[in-house]
Every structure is written in structure tokens, then in C-alpha cells.
């Protein structure tokens, strides 16, 4: 701790204090007179404000404070506080500042309708008792916005100190770890630097990222960015990475109101070890759970639509997938896209089922392509201007993992969510923006006129980025069904009655493929009912429907009873009755007449 002045070297309020001053043997210490100081000496700053992870001998605490608009609307007041310890018991520097501030004449006349900003650059994060007193101060002074930045965490691994920081955060204090630019700012504004430039010590940025990640974990807040080292360790799409136990989510949230972008958020979450959580739960908090908790608390508003994108180092486990699905079902104004670097336990049927549940709930699930990795590097990594480096095997690994994911998701969905069904199946006369096609199918196997087996499920057209090799055209729902049916079911000695309930009628190309399939498999009969006619005024699309009719397929529009049957048979409706939307009967008759006219012309 720095030396104190004697009476013969009495300090003047608001000036720097010489550390060389010493007390004569016959002298006595005077009561504390140094707070607030104007500036720190350079060696004091470098000693006390270093962000080394394991500093020794830093028992004192300093606050470099900055107050905006307190004394006058345009005023900026700066100074330095340190703890007091003589002649009374030790008073921590935070309390010294609060005691001083509340006695200022300007502090007593603050306008409750305005916001006054106070920034602390502290050499240590607050202890538990000081955190409690600062939180109490903020409750009494609602007009004060307090930002606290520090280079190190005081007892950052002890639960009670972590809880103190959480209490401060809950009280409205803005907590952050000092970044390299903050150290330079303090050097330029709070240090008697004699005109010297700030010297960035070795490890300053790396230590910042480590401590910032630790603080974010404690507060359950997203990190602003990842260090290059962390990204390059945790995100490569290696085929074998079983020892990589942490999961990171780089997220983007776009708020949309009236179809126009409103607000944009981005950040990073990591799974939180159990010892960082209040009450020490047995299980750690996964990254997905951290995001959902934060998103629910900070962002979610019913009148706003949200487009959420996740770039994940691991695919979600079954438990997290189920939580995400429940969240999407409860919040129909949220759409989710998930891009994954690696598949978690991809041969485990439970984990595969989790991915299928996400897919069925409407989440867009894909593997991260090389371009996605570069995007994350540019958007979520503190890369210091370095270009992204494509590691060996990045594209080959992507294709292998993408094929595996496609295999998992190409199995039929067991059911649709009510939200998906009510969005994609209504028989609206104008639905040009509905680009996905869904097939709710039933397959009856009959042998000797006896029912042998029964299958049902749902297929959706598969976007091209989910297919191996990035084909130019996506895989249509009809093609997904035919591929699955040919692989899993088809036997020449069994008769099959197949029924499709489709959100769109087949296009010409799919109609031709279905006709060829029926001609090759005479033991298959097909009935197709669809909600809407795809490009019904186009002669090519009309020809496709005529070809199906001529090949023996039973083609019809879905009547209101068909919509109710699909709701009861293919939708996870949780016991809710089907709701007949306005115009369902009228639209059916109009579309049915149009279809009959097309088939008559064939």
C-alpha cells in the first residue's frame, strides 16, 4: 500500500500524492485527506490496474470516476478514490465515493426526470458488502446510471461474491471487464503520465477475454465476442471431438414489426458450469438454456416478430431440443434457424430424435458451411483484422456431417405443430409467399386383402443447403416421400394404398416423377388431396395434374372435413379441436371447380 503523508507534507485535496513521502519517527498520522485525488502516478496505475489473472500484493482498491452532467448539463468531472483505513476502521473505496457524492451540493438537486451517468474504472470488482451498498444507492437514486468496469474479479470463484455481482446487475448497474481500450482511456485521463503513451502489456487482450467470459457466465449475460483462440479451438468441424465439452452459441436476434427490421442484437453464450449458478444445481446450465432465459427476460414482446439465428459448436442435446421446441410452441412470433458445426452423439437415437423434434417444430436446422464459419469469424470474433483461415478438411467434413444430418432429418416427421399446420395448410386463394410444401401421408400395406401394416407421417421439401453437394434445386416433398418409401417400405408382393394430404398441388416435374413411379409399381395406388393449386393458370402445371389423373392417381381438393381429419391425425394438437377458418368452404368450392375444369380439358 502506498505511503501516507505526515502533517509536514499535508496533501491538498484533488492533487497527486507522492509515494516517496515518509513519516519521521516522532510524527503522527493525520486523518485521511486524500480522497478524491486528481490523478494517479504511472507506476501506481500499472501496478494496481493490471489484468493479470493471478496478481499478488494488490490489496488496495482504486476508483477512477467520471461524472457526466452532475454539476451542469455539459460538465464532465473526473477524479480518483482509494480505500481509507486511518484513523477509523477500513472504508472501502466504493463507500468513500458514495459518502462523498451524497454530500455534494449538486447531488441533492438532481432532476428525477433525467439520467446522470457515472462511470467507475475500478482496480478490483466490488466485494459483497460494497455491492449491497451500491445497489441500495441505486435504488434511492433512480436517475443515476452507474457503469462499473474493472480489470479483475475479486474472489470470482466464490459463490457469495458472484451473487454480489448478480445483485448489482439486477439493481441496474452496468458491469463489464476493462478491455485494452479502457486501460488506454484511463491512462490518458486519470494518470499523471508525463506525456508518455500507454504501453499494452503482454497478455492484456487475452486476459480480458478470459475475465470477460467469466463475468458473463456469472451474470448469465451474453459475451460480446470470442477470442480467436477460443473460436479456433471450439468451432472446427472435426469428425472426432469428443473431449470438447463446452458448447458455444453465436446468436443474432432481429426484431421485426410490420415486416420491417426494428432492432438487432448479437452475442455469444456458453454453457454455464453448475458452480456458477445460485444454489449450486446438480446439472450445469446449457448454452441453449442460457439464451432462452436471457431472451425471455430481455427481449421478448408479444406484438413483435423475431428472427433468431444460432451458430452452434455442438448440436443441441435431446433435453435442450425439447426445451427449444416448447419455447417455439409458446412463442409463435419467434422463428429459429440453427447452424451447427458438429453433431452431438449423432449415432444415438435420442439425440437424433431431438434434431427431428426441432425440425418438426419449424426450426431450420443445417450444418455450418465453410462460408458460415467465415461469417462467424467476421461477426462474432475479436479477430484484430486477421482474415479467416480455412483449416484442412473444413469442406470435406462439412459434406460428411451434412449427409449425416440429412439422413436424420429425411425420416418423416411424426406430426406437425399447430402453428405450422395453421400457417401452411389454409386454402387461401392467394398464398404466393408460402414456399414450403408439406405432405401428410398414410400408407396401408395389404396382403390377400388384409391390412398388414399402417404408416403415417409428414414430409416437407428439403432446402438445398441440407443436401450433400449443394444441388441447385431443393428436394421437393414428393421426392422425399418417394425416396423414403422406396427405401423403407416397398415390396413387390404387397399392395399399398397411399394417401397424400398436400399443402400445394405437385409441380410438373414432381408430377412426372410420381407418374413414372406409379407405372413402375403397379401394386401402389395413390390418392392425392391438396389444399391449394400451385400456379393453376400455368399450362405446364395444369398438364402435371392431368398426367397424374391419367396415370390413375385420385386427385381432389381438400374439403373442410379433410382439414379436420389432418388436424386430428397429423397435428400435435394437444386435444384442441379444429378451428374452421373464415372462407374455408367457399375457397374449397372455388378451387374444386378450378381443378375439375383442368382435369376435363385433359
What is the number of E strands?
Answer: 17
Mean model confidence by pLDDT: 84
Distance between the termini: 96 Å
Helical residues, percent: 25-40%
The radius of gyration is 33 Å
- Coarse shape: elongated
Major sheet: order of its strands? 3-2-4-5-6
Helix and strand content put the structural class at alpha/beta
Discrete helix count: 18
Given as residue ranges, the uncertain stretches (5+ residues, pLDDT < 50) are: 1-33, 274-282, 464-472
Major sheet characteristics = 5 strands, mixed
Share of β-strand residues: 15-25%
Write structural notes for this entry.
The chain is an alpha/beta fold and 602 residues long. The chain has helices spanning 42-48, 93-103, 128-140, 159-170, 180-190, 204-219, 228-234, 287-298, 318-330, 349-360, 370-380, 394-410, 418-424, 477-488, 508-520, 539-550, 560-570, 584-601, and strands at 40-41, 62-68, 76-82, 116-122, 144-150, 174-177, 191-192, 248-257, 260-270, 305-312, 334-340, 364-367, 438-447, 450-460, 495-504, 524-532, 554-557. Strands 3-2-4-5-6 form a five-stranded mixed beta sheet, sandwiched between helices. A five-stranded mixed beta sheet has the order 9-8-10-11-12, with helices on both faces. A five-stranded mixed beta sheet has the order 14-13-15-16-17, sandwiched between helices. Helix 16 links the parallel strand 16 (524-532) and strand 17. Helix 9 runs parallel beside helix 10 and helix 15 packs parallel to helix 16 (539-550). The protein is elongated, with a radius of gyration of 33 Å. The model is unreliable at 1-33, 274-282 and 464-472 (pLDDT under 50).
